[in-house]
Design goal:
Elements: H1 2-9, H2 13-17, H3 25-34, H4 41-60, E1 65-68, H5 74-78, H6 100-103, H7 109-125, E2 131-135, H8 141-153, E3 165-169, H9 172-176, H10 178-184, E4 187-190, H11 192-200, H12 218-233, E5 237-240, H13 244-247, H14 249-258, E6 262-263, H15 270-285
Parallel strand pairs: 1-2, 2-3, 3-4, 4-5, 5-6
Helix pairs in contact: 1-4, 4-7, 11-12, 14-15
Amino acid sequence: MEFIITEYIKVHPMALLYPDKVKSSKERQEIAQLVQGYNSPTDYFVQRLSEGVGMIAAAFYPKPVVVRMSDFKSNEYASLLGGNAFEAKEENPMIGFRGASRYTHPAYQEGFELECAAMKRVRDEMGLNNVILMIPFCRRIDEGKRVLAKMAECGLRQGKNGLKIYVMCEIPNNVIQVDEFAKLFDGFSIGSNDLTQLTLGVDRDSQIVAFDFDERDPGVKAFLKMAVEGAKRNGRHSGICGQAPSDYPEMAEFLVECGIESMSLTPDTIIKTTLNVLAVEKRLAE
């Protein structure tokens, strides 16, 4: 979703709702030019986002397509047109105002409502009910409940028309409380990048400590195993969308041995990793 917003929409959602708060006349003019021909600035956002997601979902229909709701960090949101007017400067955006915490917060919940309107259009009007929605960086159970309630309020009720809602498993608390999160969500997608960052206490945006960032650390692997086994124990889908399986063949093998159901891979590693996974699955079946 972030790629579509950055490349195809270019404007901070709140700037479309409240253009008068954008201080830069140049940015206001750019926004006005972008939304020309649409019924309203918010209609521009909903249509463009739904078209971008719809194009991808239609290409794979009827196979499931998992769409992660927005997970811009505050500094990334600020880089969008009009963004500076709505984003506070944070010392460490990686663990700041991001993901699920934004969705029901007064500073962004109207923006999240636009995201939901776009996803409702994809599923209900375009008929692309193969779209599964996913909530990123959900820190606590109560936060998950609030987000699901907000989504239902916006017409995205879990279970209605087959709607599944997954959660990113990328915070140690997601793993420790996997049984409780499984009561709320239909599946888990492990974000190994953030899970590694938060397990090892390494800011993955900091070059000076980059040498300490390693998904293969025994502590990280323990959390990965706990997450996959917890999902399986609760009858929930488990997948991974971090870099680990693409960067390290041994990690892909480890995850298959744990029982993971799906992996996201970089294009250049798909064939090699798929062949490796098939070999591991064959070995496990013997």
